[in-house]
């Protein structure tokens, strides 16, 4: 959800008073800059460790980025501080959103809002809950409440637009997307947002119109070109798609870090490889780009090149379980069973929930170690059972505190 950033140096944040830290953190959160928001909110929490409002806002940001560990830590601590506080209840609500127990989450939000009926942050969290649960009409009502309390809430307008789009009211969706753009000119174009709604909603004709309008209004913004390129390619309009591709290369020649990610996202993997290689030529220590390049090379079945990238990645980041797992799969495909088994075992040693168990078992079978392979699969089954039991425990949790 984050769109842009511009955080202050840590030393500067440390000198900001608590109330201003909270104010800036909230402002950044509702301008779609969650990561920067968290920097201020954590600084506020460092200043006042018992502040439950800061904890709740960090929980919301963590939920947006699927950061389960942060949600769990903050929610548990909130219960220890004051389990009856509205923000402690809201932290629990976010925790249950994360476990997809939406009924329990809503019980907590209902209690929290019952204590503080006009709190923007609580209503926004409840809107997020309804987004996750798929109850878009309730999401509309929750975000309308947010905007009744704060008309200039940028995220409120965007989320309300998303909710309207989900129930088929595209005119209202556009109205709120446009209002968000008016309030925050650095956010996405309203036509780009609406185009994405049509794109993912299976209406390519309307999507094309919206993407073309977005490009006409903001020709310097790259995302509209990529979405237009994708929808034209999906419709097998090769000549038009090629024209858009040429325009991308002409307009954005100096941003391979950005074009690489977008080419990969939209399935133009060969182009992504070329751009990622340019980025790594400038900065060989960019591990995220190296990981993306390795995955693209794997997808293209350029095995030896992919192996070289994974080996370099592992050398620079020896705790990367996913890299070991991917490497094991490639080595198995090439018939290098001993090396595949070794890489798969390393992946499992680093992460007991790794997906490398099957690769390890298959490699062991090919090496004639059938008994060890069987034990490996039994271990995977046991760990999956334990993980499921732990999830069930967290899912059901305790009863909401009255």
Describe the structure.
The chain has 402 residues and is an all-alpha fold. The chain has a domain at 319-394: Tetratricopeptide repeat domain (Serine Threonine Protein Phosphatase 5, Tetratricopeptide repeat). It is built from 23 helices and no strands. It has helices spanning 10-14, 18-29, 34-47, 52-64, 68-81, 86-98, 102-115, 120-133, 136-149, 154-166, 170-183, 190-200, 204-217, 223-234, 238-251, 256-265, 269-282, 287-299, 303-316, 321-333, 337-350, 357-366, 370-396.
Can you tag this structure with a few keywords?
single chain; 402 residues; mainly alpha; Serine Threonine Protein Phosphatase 5, Tetratricopeptide repeat; disordered N terminus
């Amino acid at each position: 959800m984050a769109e842009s950033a511009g955080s202050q140096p840590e030393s500067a944040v440390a000198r900001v008073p608590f109330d201003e830290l909270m104010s800036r953190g909230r402002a950044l959160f509702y301008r779609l800059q969650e990561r920067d928001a968290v920097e201020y909110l954590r600084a506020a929490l460092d200043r006042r460790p018992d502040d439950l409002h800061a904890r709740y806002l960090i929980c919301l940001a963590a939920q947006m980025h699927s950061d389960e560990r942060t949600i769990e830590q903050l929610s548990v601590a909130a219960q220890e501080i004051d389990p009856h506080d509205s923000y402690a209840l809201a932290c629990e609500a976010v925790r249950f959103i994360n476990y997809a127990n939406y009924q329990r989450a809503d019980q907590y939000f209902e209690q929290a809002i019952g204590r503080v009926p006009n709190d923007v942050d609580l209503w926004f969290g409840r809107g997020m809950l309804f987004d996750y649960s798929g109850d878009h009409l309730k999401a509309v009502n929750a975000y309308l409440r947010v905007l009744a309390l704060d008309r200039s809430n940028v995220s409120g307008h965007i989320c309300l637009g998303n909710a309207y789009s989900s129930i088929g009211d595209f005119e209202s969706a556009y109205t709120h997307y446009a209002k968000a753009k008016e309030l925050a000119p650095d956010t996405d174009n309203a036509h780009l947002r609406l185009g994405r709604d049509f794109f993912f909603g299976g209406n390519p004709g309307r999507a094309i119109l919206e993407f073309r309008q977005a490009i006409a209004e903001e020709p310097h913004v790259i995302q509209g070109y990529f979405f237009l390129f994708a929808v034209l390619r999906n419709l097998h309009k090769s000549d038009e798609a090629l024209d858009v591709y040429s325009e991308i290369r002409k307009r954005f020649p100096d941003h391979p870090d950005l074009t690489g990610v977008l080419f990969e996202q939209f399935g133009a993997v060969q182009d992504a490889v070329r751009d990622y290689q340019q980025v790594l030529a400038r900065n060989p220590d960019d591990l995220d780009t190296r990981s993306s390049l390795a995955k693209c090379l794997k997808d293209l079945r350029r095995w030896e090149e992919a192996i070289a990238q994974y080996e370099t990645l592992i050398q620079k980041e020896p705790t990367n379980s996913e890299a070991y797992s991917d490497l094991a799969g490639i080595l198995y495909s090439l018939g290098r069973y001993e090396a595949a088994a070794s890489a798969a075992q390393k992946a499992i040693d680093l992460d007991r929930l790794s997906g490398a168990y099957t690769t390890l078992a298959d490699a062991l079978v090919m090496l004639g170690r059938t008994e060890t392979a069987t034990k490996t699969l039994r271990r995977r089954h046991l760990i999956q059972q334990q993980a499921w039991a732990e999830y069930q425990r967290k899912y059901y949790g305790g009863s909401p505190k009255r």
